[in-house]
Write a structure and sequence with these properties.
alpha/beta, 434 Repressor (Amino-terminal Domain), Rossmann fold, 3 domains, 6-stranded parallel sheet, 6-stranded mixed sheet, 12 helices, 43% helix
């Protein structure tokens, strides 16, 4: 016969609700009571089930992370720190993907009985935050935000990294500068473009429209647009990429076309994914603490769940310039 919480209660000499509260680490109980309950539960082999916890607390202790594409290398470096931080707070992480912004995504999130959602997919015109708000499901923005609904956010400030990167490009003698930017309907692409243009202006440089391309944050975009720019009669001598994944595609294009990096063209990424630092790639890039930002998003959602009326918080992570071997002085070409 299965051991129940009533068995634990009889052994400890407390009520059954006290057992449930103790195993949920309820702060209203004394540490001594919680210790006795945990020890007795372990002695009897009793574990508070997720279903029982949900019934007693009204929560499932599950938080969803909504991403666009599990194949994107960026997300693989976000999942682990989010999981660790949520686990530390007593929550489980569940992964969800969306191919498009529609009501089905929201219904799936709500239908899974989540306590909250970390949104890593929002476009500036996304209706997902609106629908989550209307359904009363707490959420926070990660990396991307939207102007339609104000919410907690963990984001990147690209300004500092771009100022240092453009100052380096100017010192290296580059003037024909290209950019493969992200989708215009994402806050990340908008803020990075604004940061790049502001840094260029500060250094007396401009982006020639001929050298400006846009597309999804993927290797195909980097490959396709770098191929187009390197095929020009007078190609750019340096290309800024919307993220490292795009830069990897640009490096592939250069290799395929027989263009030396950095001999013929210099390339700069954004994110500083672990692969960017591999000796075989050694990508010059703009960096920030991805793990810390992911952990911050996890803390924001657990805070929002525990205190729905808390003041909205936006945590911005600074960027730095990491110079590696994909950039070189213009005279070394």
């Amino acid at each position: 016969m299965a051991v129940t919480s009533h068995d634990v209660a009889r052994l400890v000499g407390v009520s059954q609700p006290t057992v449930s509260r103790a195993l949920r680490d309820d702060p209203r109980l004394s540490e001594e009571t919680k210790r006795r309950v945990r020890e007795s539960a372990a002695q009897l082999g009793y574990v508070l089930s997720d279903a029982g916890r949900a019934l007693s607390s009204g929560r499932t202790q599950r938080i969803g992370l909504l991403v666009t594409d599990l194949d994107n290398q960026f997300y693989s470096h976000v999942i682990a720190p989010v999981h660790r931080e949520l686990e530390r707070e007593g929550f489980q992480l569940t992964l969800h993907t969306e191919a498009s912004d529609n009501a089905t995504v929201v219904e799936r999130l709500v239908g899974n009985g989540l306590d909250g959602v970390i949104l890593a997919t929002a476009t500036v015109d996304s209706l997902v935050p609106v629908r989550l708000r209307d359904r009363g499901l707490p959420f926070v923005y990660f990396n991307r935000t939207t102007t339609l609904v104000e919410a907690d956010a963990a984001i990147v400030d690209p300004a500092g990294g771009f100022r240092a990167a453009v100052a380096s490009a100017r010192a290296l003698g580059h003037h024909r500068i290209g950019a493969i930017l992200g989708p215009q309907n994402t806050s990340t692409a908008q803020s990075r473009e604004a940061g790049l243009r502001a840094a260029l202006e500060l250094n007396g440089l401009v982006l020639d429209p001929t050298y400006v391309r846009r597309g999804p944050f993927d290797t195909d975009t980097g490959d396709r647009e770098a191929t187009a720019m390197l095929s020009l009669a007078q190609p750019p001598t340096l290309i800024f990429c919307g993220n490292d994944v795009v830069a990897f595609g640009a490096l592939n294009a250069a290799r395929r076309m027989g263009a030396a990096v950095p001999g013929d063209v210099s390339v700069i990424g954004f994110d500083d994914l672990p692969a960017a630092g591999w000796p075989i790639i050694d990508l010059t890039t703009i960096a920030y603490d991805i793990s810390a930002m992911a952990a911050a998003a996890a803390r924001l959602i657990t805070r929002r769940i525990s205190d729905p009326s808390a003041e909205i918080s936006s945590i911005s992570f600074p960027t730095t310039f990491v110079e590696r071997s994909t950039t070189t002085p213009l005279g070394d070409r």
